[in-house]
């Protein structure tokens, strides 16, 4: 019997993403904590999600800003650990030029995300939710947390797979330079 997660759309997206990442130009450099920067920006799948009030969003809604798109879930231990550091990063660098977009893939939706934000004191991150979980697959996130750095045109310029401490001085300096130069 086939495992339902390994069939259909998921497998196709995974294989396409793995192939495109393997064919992507080698990274021109890496940032703190293993953050990889691509030699040339990569197109990103069009994804849809909503805020906790049910307002629909796409990545195009953030065009003009450098975006740190973090894919996470409340049931993911490493995600839970890094969320306060993402909140601190948004507090430090959030502006008209930069935003941390924390995209939860919790199927229970905005209520569970809002409860989690209250529980751990998240104050600066907007709650974004993809109840379908398809954004994760469409963006080639082979695990969570996965974080993509998107340029002002919505193209992926870098990626970090796994947990990170987003509010370290090295990471803040790295992202401040990206904001100033990209």
UniProtKB/TrEMBL annotation:
GO terms for biological process: cytochrome complex assembly. Keywords: Cytochrome c-type biogenesis, Redox-active center, Signal. GO terms for cellular component: cell envelope. PROSITE patterns: THIOREDOXIN_1, THIOREDOXIN_2. Residues 38-180 form the Thioredoxin domain. It comes from the Bacteria. InterPro entries: Redoxin, Thioredoxin-like_sf, Thioredoxin_CS, Thioredoxin_domain, Thioredoxin_ResA/DsbE_sf. This is TlpA family protein disulfide reductase. It comes from Vreelandella glaciei. Pfam families: Redoxin. One of its GO terms (molecular function) is disulfide oxidoreductase activity. Residues 1-24 form the signal peptide. Coiled coil: none annotated.
């Amino acid at each position: 019997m086939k495992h339902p997660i390994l069939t259909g759309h998921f497998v196709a997206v995974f294989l396409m993403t793995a192939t495109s990442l393997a064919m992507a130009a080698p990274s021109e450099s890496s940032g703190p904590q293993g953050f990889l920067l691509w030699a040339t920006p990569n197109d990103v799948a069009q994804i849809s999600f909503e805020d906790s009030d049910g307002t629909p969003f796409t990545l195009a809604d953030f065009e003009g800003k450098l975006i740190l798109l973090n894919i996470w879930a409340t049931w993911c231990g490493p995600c839970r650990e890094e969320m306060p550091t993402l909140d601190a990063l948004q507090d430090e660098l959030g502006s008209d030029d930069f935003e941390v977009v924390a995209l939860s893939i919790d199927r229970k939706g905005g209520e569970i995300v809002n409860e989690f934000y209250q529980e751990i004191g998240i104050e600066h991150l907007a709650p974004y939710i993809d109840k379908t979980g398809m954004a994760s697959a469409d963006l080639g996130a082979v695990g969570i947390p996965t974080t993509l750095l998107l340029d002002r045109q919505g193209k992926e310029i870098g990626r970090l797979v796994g947990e990170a401490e987003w509010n370290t001085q090295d990471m803040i300096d790295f992202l401040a330079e990206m904001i100033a130069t990209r």
